Amino acid sequence: MNSTATPTKRTAKTTGEMFLRLQLDDQTTAVVPMLQIQEAIVLPAGRVSVVPNLPSPVMGLFNRRSSLLWLVDLPEIMGLAPIDRHTNSYDLALIKVDETALAVAVRSILGVIRFEAAEISSSLDNFNPAFIPYLSGWISREQESILVLNPAAIINAQILNN
Questions:
Q1: Integer angstrom CA distances of residue 141 from 5, 45, 63, 125, 128
Q2: Domain holding 120: CATH number?
Q3: First-to-last CA distance in the chain?
Q4: pLDDT higher for 149 or 128?
Q5: Rounded Cα distance, 29 and 24, in Å
Q6: Where does the pLDDT of residue 162 fall: very low under 50, low under 70, confident under 90, or very high at 90 and above?
Q7: pLDDT at 141 over 80
Q8: What residues contact residue 46 under an 8 Å CB cut-off, 6+ apart?
Q9: Which of 2, 17, 53, 151 could lock 95 by a disulfide, CB 3.0 to 4.6 Å apart?
Q10: Does some domain include residue 9?
Q11: Where would I find the beta strands (DSSP E) of the chain?
């Protein structure tokens, strides 16, 4: 019996770079390249140790796989309403740039999305000026503007280094 394999057709859903999709507030969705995501987890609030006298977006420290990591409030860094600190758990993404890792709390993790680099628009004229230092660009999907975040800019945010 002789059979020939038919190549599978790739669709837009299976091609392109992978990004982790994050909900920052009710109107703001953002993505981070998966190449700079270590993992996305739900962390019980009781595992975060609050450290006094730090900038407001710094939520504290926690231990993950024998490493101490800083947890920061990503929406607050970007000028949005802060994450509720009186909750049972936090949705967070662990981002890593070179050897520096940082955990960022968000309203929710929405999963993974794929898109081509050519879909990213670098025109940032219509966005909140507080967002601009943390953006690589944006994409438009299904009548929604999705922010493309720059992980290095988040890790090096001025507000965290005061």
A1: 34, 33, 36, 18, 19
A2: 2.40.50.180
A3: 71
A4: 149
A5: 6
A6: low
A7: yes
A8: none
A9: 151
A10: no
A11: 17-25, 28-33, 37-44, 58-64, 67-73, 89-97, 100-106, 108-115, 135-141, 144-149
Q: Print the domain residue range for 83.
A: 18-161
Taking only Cα atoms into account, the Rg of the chain, rounded to an integer number of angstroms, comes to: 18
CA distance linking residue 91 with residue 74, whole number of Å:
11
Q: If you average pLDDT over residues 3-21, what whole number do you get?
A: 66
Give me 25's structure tokens: 């507030």
Asked if residue 6 belongs to a domain, the reply is no
pLDDT at 12 over 50: no
Total tally of structural domains belonging to the chain: 1
Place of tokens 């503007």: 145
Whether 13 maps to a domain, the answer reads no
Instruction: Find tokens 């968000």 and name the residue.
Output: 106
Q: What is the mean pLDDT of residues 45-54?
A: 94
Question: What is the DSSP pairing of strand 28-33 with strand 144-149?
Answer: parallel
pLDDT recorded at residue 151: 96
Q: Which amino acid is at 146?
A: I
Cα separation, 38 vs 116, whole angstroms: 21
In a domain, 114, yes or no: yes
What confidence score (pLDDT) does residue 112 get? Answer: 95
